[in-house]
Structure to design on (621 residues):
């Protein structure tokens, strides 16, 4: 019983982290049709910023995290305007290569400024320790991650389903030429979505630092994981990313607990099986 | 470079592979021989470049000609390396027999995985190809009794090549052996890509729907191309295992697939020379940058990759065409 509870809690928390990082990737890939291998770099930049703000500037956690997320978005904006806008028009392979190049530069930048060691993100005392939920104790950190993830899902739902921006974004994902013809400023939508995705990735990177430790080679190390979530979920689908992140988080955690020797094999076998059955992903359009 | 007259975007199908009687090939071969005498103390590195060229050539067939976007070519390289290593240890240490075994292993992995992979496209295909390599890596990691796990497969002792040339400490035999295999692979690929089979792959790359309409079994052609490319990648892996006498888990790594892709696009896809030149340039730059600054060489690689993509999108072999366009005044206008 306790094993199942452990798997559920850890798996859901892991899934939430994956969701936060991957959802921006999924939306930008669905919208701009760009295979962005540098997306994990934004999680790295967020983590590196928060590390600097906490350990060097000595800011309180609750101030440092929003600042780091905003800082990442502020860095993402000029990158979108200068680099990514040109990359949208490239072919698939050129996109893969260009974004790998960007990821290399991000890694080299963090490596140059902060070194290649693990970047610690000390969490405040309120987030350490465990909480007694009556039937069992749960790590406070996991609860924060799960709550933040759920809040993010709710916010994204409201943003996309209830606002004018969301409507334009969905229109642009469905058919960007028609959307542009109807007077929607797709360039602005691209930039806003890209920054939003980068900010979410930064938040996911910061909150998930206990599960996926922040270090210079982060973008390459976890790139495959994030892309798997997007591919399994289906490009451009937020529901898909959520289901895929949750599912893969649970599968990964469960296989680590139950068959530790074959965890990775089991995980990738699941991914292969899903993608073989549904090449467009769970919620993707064929 | 020698290949400049061929238009970068729409390569002309050649009538038969040997129209120009191997002029460019002879030049490249001469360069390799010159490198042997210019850098006698770097034979190990030169041999690594030659092996990598074979690997990137296999990727060129799969990706440049057949248009299969893959980031998992290392799966076949690793299969070839482990197969050749195990074969040498347990069965027969003859190098050429080992190459055949490596090729068979690479082709078998590609054939089996290709049956699933060739049904997918785009991102899904990329992910599936990565997943296959990762699964194999994990299998090799867990099968510690057979593969040595994370310690690597040790104890490979090769017999002399063709029973004549013994592998020496400096790596002279290794160099000539790798160069000979590279030359054979190159000529074989030249013949294959000039054959009706190769042309049909090009057609599929351009438009699968039209090729299906004129009666080409698109799916099976792709599977065949993937298996053939896998066999060549297996040869490269087997060669690496025989010459370095060690197989580590890195042979399946994602980084290997990604680097091969960078080298190929750097040189230019779909022209074979691109694979050779891109590999030489990438590995030389990588080697020099990593030696000059072991911590920040990624800046150089990242910058190089972006510069090529933005300024010479067709690869370095497209450089002459791009320069001509630049001087004529019509700047590389993208549509």
């Amino acid at each position: 019983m306790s094993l199942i509870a452990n798997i559920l809690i850890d798996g859901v928390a892991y899934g939430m982290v994956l969701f936060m990082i991957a959802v921006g990737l999924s939306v930008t890939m669905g919208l701009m049709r760009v295979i962005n291998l540098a997306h994990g770099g934004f999680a790295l930049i967020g983590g590196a910023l928060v590390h600097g703000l906490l350990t060097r500037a000595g800011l309180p956690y609750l101030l440092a995290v929003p600042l780091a997320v905003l800082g990442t978005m502020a860095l993402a904006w000029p990158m979108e305007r200068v680099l990514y806008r040109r990359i949208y028009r490239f072919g698939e392979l050129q996109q893969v290569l260009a974004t790998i190049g960007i990821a290399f530069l991000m890694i080299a930048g963090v490596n140059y400024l902060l070194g290649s060691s693990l970047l610690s993100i000390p969490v405040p005392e309120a987030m350490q320790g465990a909480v007694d939920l009556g039937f069992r104790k749960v790590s406070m950190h996991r609860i924060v991650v799960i709550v933040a993830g759920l809040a993010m899902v709710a916010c994204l739902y409201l943003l996309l389903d209830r606002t004018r921006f969301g409507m334009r974004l969905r229109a642009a994902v469905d058919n960007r030429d028609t959307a542009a013809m109807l007077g929607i400023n797709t360039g602005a939508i691209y930039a806003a979505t890209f920054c939003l995705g980068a900010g979410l990735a930064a938040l996911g990177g910061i909150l998930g630092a206990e599960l996926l430790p922040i270090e210079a080679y982060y973008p390459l190390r976890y790139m495959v994981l994030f892309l798997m979530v997007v591919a399994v979920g289906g490009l451009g689908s937020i529901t898909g990313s959520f289901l895929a992140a949750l599912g893969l988080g649970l599968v990964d955690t469960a296989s680590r607990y139950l068959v530790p020797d074959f965890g990775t094999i089991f995980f990738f076998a699941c991914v292969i099986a899903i993608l073989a059955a549904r090449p467009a992903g769970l919620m993707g359009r064929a | 470079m020698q290949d400049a007259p061929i238009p970068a975007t729409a390569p002309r199908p050649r009538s038969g592979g040997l129209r120009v009687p191997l002029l460019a090939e002879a030049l490249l071969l001469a360069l390799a021989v010159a490198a042997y005498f210019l850098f006698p103390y770097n034979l190990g590195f030169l041999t690594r470049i030659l092996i990598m060229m074979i690997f990137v050539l296999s990727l060129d067939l799969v990706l440049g000609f057949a248009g299969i976007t893959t980031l998992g070519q290392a799966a076949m390289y690793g299969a070839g390396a482990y197969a050749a290593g195990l074969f040498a240890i347990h069965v027969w240490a003859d190098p050429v027999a080992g190459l055949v075994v490596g090729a068979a292993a690479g082709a078998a992995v590609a054939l089996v995985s290709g049956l699933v992979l060739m049904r997918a496209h785009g991102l899904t295909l990329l992910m599936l190809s990565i997943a296959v390599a990762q699964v194999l890596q994990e299998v090799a990691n867990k099968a510690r009794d057979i593969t040595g796990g994370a310690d690597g497969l040790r104890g490979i002792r090769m017999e002399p090549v063709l029973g004549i040339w013994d592998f020496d400490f400096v790596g002279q035999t290794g160099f000539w052996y790798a160069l000979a295999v590279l030359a054979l692979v190159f000529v074989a690929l030249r013949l294959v890509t000039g054959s009706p089979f190769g042309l049909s792959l090009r057609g599929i790359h351009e438009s699968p729907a039209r090729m299906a309409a004129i009666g080409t079994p698109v799916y099976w052609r792709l599977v065949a191309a993937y298996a053939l490319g896998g066999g060549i990648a297996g040869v490269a892996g087997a060669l690496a295992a025989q010459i370095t006498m060690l197989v580590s888990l890195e042979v399946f790594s994602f980084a290997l697939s990604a680097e091969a892709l960078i080298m190929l696009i750097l040189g230019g896809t779909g022209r074979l020379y691109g694979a050779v030149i891109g590999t030489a340039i990438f590995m030389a730059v990588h080697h020099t940058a990593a030696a000059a600054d072991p911590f920040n060489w990624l800046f150089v690689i990242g910058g190089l990759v972006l510069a090529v993509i933005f300024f010479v999108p067709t690869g370095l072999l497209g450089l002459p065409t791009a320069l001509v366009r630049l001087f004529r005044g019509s700047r590389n206008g993208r549509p």
Q: What stands out?
A: Chain B touches chain A through 43 residues (CB under 8 Å).
